[in-house]
Amino acid sequence: MALSVSKGVPSVLARQRVHLVETFTYKFRQPYHTAKRMAPDEGRAFVARVQSEARRLAYRAIRELQDNLQAQGYRLARTGLVLASGRPLPRLPQILASHALIHTADGELFRGAILHASARCGLGSATVREKELLSEASRVLHLKPDALTQRIADLGRELGPPWSQDEKFAFMVAWMALFSPSSVLNHAEKDAD
């Protein structure tokens, strides 16, 4: 999701779901689950291939978004990403020994690809843990949590379905990224996140 803010009011410039695997099947969408069923070296190599592909596809998606926004007169200033709420992951054998860690690792692989691609595209990234998203966005945007939640619900009605939880989170972190203290806004040109 890309958005712009004018006079404190956010508007959505782009809304799309990016796929970070070429073959959209369970095998590739959940690489650690797949690696668990492989020999250790084969599993490690498989995860590395999926990670490389995810980084490549994330980079391509961000570059395309930059180009599309530039054609509309906007500059993509930052990316925002909601992080998982868990602790850092252990080494691969420990991950594969725990079903909960496998789920976490699958998500972290794709989040890492987005952050990697953002850096390659020269973009700063604002990140926030999921469990802190509402409170941090409320603080940065100077809105009470109830008011922020209502604005997001109102926007969902304007945009139309689907307006899923991940889209609401993406919108909130993108809006927050534009106003976070580390953002450098150039008021001479339109910025988007």
Q: Overview of this structure, please?
A:
The protein is α/β, with parallel strands linked by helices. It contains eight helices and six strands. The strands form three sheets. It has a two-stranded antiparallel sheet with strand order 1-2. The chain has a two-stranded parallel ribbon with strand order 3-6. Helix 3 packs across helix 5 and helix 6 runs parallel beside helix 8. The protein is globular, with a radius of gyration of 18 Å. The protein starts with a strand and ends with a strand. Mean pLDDT is 89; it is low at 182-192.
Estimated structural class: alpha/beta
- Side by side, the strands of the main sheet go 1-2
| Range of helix content | 55-70%
Compute the CA-based radius of gyration.
18 Å
The number of E-state strands comes to: 6
Assembly state? single chain
- According to CATH, the fold-level topology is Nucleotidyltransferase, domain 5
Average per-residue pLDDT, rounded, comes to 89
CATH architecture, by name, is 2-Layer Sandwich
Strand content: 5-15%
CATH class: Alpha Beta
**Kindly, what is the distance between the CA atoms of the first and last residues, rounded to a whole number of angstroms?**
8 Å
Question: Biggest sheet: strands, sense, closure?
Answer: 2 strands, antiparallel
Give the helix/strand layout.
Blueprint: E1 2-6, E2 9-14, H1 26-29, H2 31-36, H3 40-71, E3 75-76, E4 78-83, H4 92-96, H5 99-120, E5 124-129, H6 133-141, H7 145-159, H8 165-179, E6 191-192
Parallel strand pairs: 3-6, 4-5
Antiparallel strand pairs: 1-2
Helix pairs in contact: 3-5, 6-8
